[in-house]
Amino acid sequence: MIAGNTSLRDLDWILILAVLGICCLGILQIFSATSGTSLSDSWWKQILFLVVGMGLMMLVCSIDYHVLLEQVPVFYIVTVVGLVGVLLFAPPINGSRSWIPMPGGFNLQVSEFSKVVILLVVSRYLAEVRTEQLTVSDLVRLGALVGVPWLLVLLEPDLGTALTILPMVAVGTFLGGLRWQHLVVIVLVIALVLPISWFFLKDYQKARIMTFTDPGADPLGSGYQVIQSLIAVGSGGMWGKGIAQGSQTQFRFLPETHTDFIMSTFAEEHGFVGVVVVLGLYFVLLMQLIQNAQMAPDRAGLFLCMGVAALVLFHLLVNVGMVIGRMPVTGIPLPLMSYGGSSLLTMFLLLGLVQSVRLRRLVR
Amino acid sequence: MDPIERKIGAMFGSGDLMRTEGARTSGPRMLIVQGIVFAVLLFLLQGFWQLQVIEEDVYAARAAENHIKSLPILAPRGNILDRDNRIIVDNRSSFNVLLSREGLNESILPTLADGLGVDTQELLARMNRFRSRARYEPIIVKEGIDSGEVAFVEAHRGMAGYPDMELIREQRRLYPSNGIAAHLVGYVGEVSERELDTLEYARYKEGDVIGKFGVERSHNNVLMGEDGQRRVVVDNRGNQRYNIGQKPARPGENLNLTIDLDLQVVAELAMNGKRGSVVALDPRNGEVLAMVSRPTFDANKLSGRIRAEDWRNIIGDPFNPLMNRAIQAQLAPGSTFKPIVAMAALEEGLIDENFRVNCSGGATFHGRYFKCHKRGGHGSVSLRNAMAQSCDVYFYAIGNMLGIDKIAEYARMAGFGAKTNVDLPHEAAGTVPDTQWKMRTFRQKWYAGETISVSIGQGALTVTPLQLAHAIGGLAVGGKWYQPHVIEMDMKDIPVREAKWDPEHVKQVVGGTYAVVNEGGTGARARIPGIPVCGKTGTSQLISNDALAKIANKDDYKDNGWNFGFAPCDNPEIIVAVLWEAGEHGSLAGPIVRDVLKAYFDKKARVKQSPSLQIATHEAVVPPQQHTATAVAAPRAPNAGAVSEGIEAAP
């Protein structure tokens, strides 16, 4: 039930169409990449997630986001407790304690949902700051607030999710009035900390970064995925090899064809033309998110929409960049396209928030 | 709101101020963010443009290489057969199991190990050895699996938790497991990196299986086929999806040896538990009818992947089982050399058949006393007696008359001192000493006293068992030496050397060897009733008697026994030479000579009675499908039943 005098017609239908377009291409590609394998039922599972996600979006957009913002302290505490619980009790899957087994064979990824909560936290916090510019104490307090759940995510260890949280916070503070001097200082600090953090990376993470700088150095080891992905993309050419015709995909030279490397298999089978279509849909999505931000009734709404835009853009850059060898291999999925329930549901949750902001612009 | 809740809420900002209007405050910054969106999308789009449009050809070619693979079709090697087409060596199909560690669930390892019949720890160790390799790269976990294990692999392929398992077919050489004819046929192995660098092996490639020893090596060209090729579309796990063309393999050709398995088996049996060699030749054309070297080895253990333990056992054996004593043992021939010395003395006109020497148990030559092997001496002996009794003094005397260079001339004529060029690898030449040889080798003058030792086949003179059979065989047929060979060859009827010897002299020497066997001589144990067998024994010392007296463990220095026999005496068809290392006396080797000769003549009589027997028995005896060493050993040899077990049990 849409509250007050809002109606379904006021939803951002362009955004919904762009999202559905991306999801459908994703499902098609999941079908193509997994047909004939033990994962061949993935495509209809993804449809199921899509349906649930749409419902979730409608549910969230029917709630005034201010109501959600008011409950931020509760969400925050629940999230932190959840993350600590996962860290202590969840069975490790692939070396990471970030999944909670759910009935029905699904696994719930707590850190995915912590993204949503952190976005709400940042939006509420920055909306409260009434000055044009953020003071150092504002930044420190925000940093402390975000830092706790962020570190917990990092400890799981789930470097991918931890990284995706950063651009949301960055865009928020940038738009919320970050002073240029502070920006310079922060950039400098990061530049100094990055080389030191190298020593805290795990061996496989180091290998991925080394591979990024020179994929030919270890063509059968960690460079394998990158090289196979480049071959898949490049051999797709202008028009692609056709649905379920990509030899790199079908003969499984490519790893993770339906999750992290879905764009690679899509590019192989649909060519540059297909890529233009997909990137075009993402462009429409991003533009709609920005437009909704600009039309938001208040600063909190703006931060929410821009946070979602930042998240999508970052995922797009890192995932697609990886597929074409312009970014190191990280386990970051392509939002809306990659197979995976947690990631998809989180996206729809966030889109629901954006729709909620959009609907609220007419309320007052 | 209660105070606590408000306090917590304050951490996130005070709730009532959220509905701030004026979102437009950050207009210019929104533009910057939009600019970033454009930049990122253009950056990505340009990347795809670069890969898919500008460099498409490069990647299209690599994609094609990626999934079209050329797989070899391995050509089976030709079989090795005896002269009657009985199989000595053939192939059996075997499967190796490959698995990739991708998708392997560690908890199924024990089940997997059990199904493949390997030890879990061993399997784990093997996988760990390949840890640095990529996980999808398949590794061989077991070679030569049996049918049950094949079934296990087939049944569990693609099951959850199981790794990708693949069977690859390989033709493995199957040798007689009891070591029969092992030195003769040799064994195969993968061409080594060092070999590939040499000219001889330049035409082979990495991974080729080639002959390493014996006939497998010397006739590798014939036995080895040419591998074919199959172009297949494969996925990243090497699973073959479909064929897109193939070139068939050309199998290697079968190879008939001149060996007669009947004789070979008898000779093997006779050498059971002994150290040494037996060579049987047809002196009329040089065909090798049997060639035994003991101790022997199981060639199956040396072909393909060699187990470290097997290799240690073979290499660590002080008696060197890998040595083919028939062509590699270079030892003093002892008295078996005497016919050559007698021939030389007759031909040079120094003696005639009535020439006599008085043997009193020894004689002094060049200031040194040389003993006869018989204490008290043989008395006055003629050539025939001297041969029969193997009187040393007689040969000291005629050797002294000849001088070393004449002895050497006749020895070389007979084929000593040079490789016989038999078609087997690693043949040794032996040594025929003379004045020049001494000067060349030691930069010393020849001492006349040394000639005395050489006259009775001692001193620096060394020969191989094959050389002995070749030399005496050629003498026995009247001074014609034919090329010894184990594979059928052209022009085998043309002698490689011929001596213009007086047939009377040949008859006199052969007569001496007849007396050895049939007139109470040292070779009496080689006698076969009804068949005129000629022969000669020889006993050669490893060290001088003086030195032996000082050594505690005399067993290590036991005399070597030599013995040869040929028959029929006047027109020999076969000559058998036996070396029994540490056999103490040549006469003890007489039964070995006799057994082989008897087997030859028994078979000849059988074939004469019923010519069809040969083919009929061949098929009955060696059914191809159950070809085992026992089947090979089973033909009409006397005591056939005991052969395989007996030989296997040999130390």
CATH architecture of the largest domain in chain B: 3-Layer(aba) Sandwich
CATH topology of the largest domain in chain B: Beta-lactamase
What spatial form of chain A do the alpha-carbon principal axes imply? globular
Q: How would you classify the helix and strand content of chain B by structural class?
A: alpha+beta
Biggest interchain interface, per-side counts: A-B, 74 and 57 residues
Give the spatial strand order of the biggest sheet of chain A.
1-2
- Please tell me the overall pLDDT of chain A: 85
Total strands of chain A: the figure is 2
Number of H- or I-type helical stretches of chain B: 27
Structural class of chain A: mainly alpha
Overall tally of domains of chain B? 2
Largest sheet of chain A: 2 strands, antiparallel
Structure, explained:
The complex is a heterodimer of chains A (364) and B (651). Chain A has helices at residues 13-34, 42-62, 65-70, 72-89, 110-128, 136-155, 159-175, 180-197, 203-213, 223-236, 247-250, 262-294, 299-323, 341-360, and strands at residues 99-101, 107-109. Chain A has 364 residues and is mostly helical. Chain A has one domain (8-360). Chain A has a two-stranded antiparallel ribbon with strand order 1-2. Chain A starts with 12 loop residues before the first helix and ends with a helix. By secondary structure, chain B is α+β, with helices and mostly antiparallel strands. The longest helix of chain B is centred in the N-terminal third of the chain and has 28 residues, at 27-54. At the A-B interface, helix 3, helix 4, helix 5, helix 7 and helix 10 of A face helix 1, helix 2 and helix 3 of B.
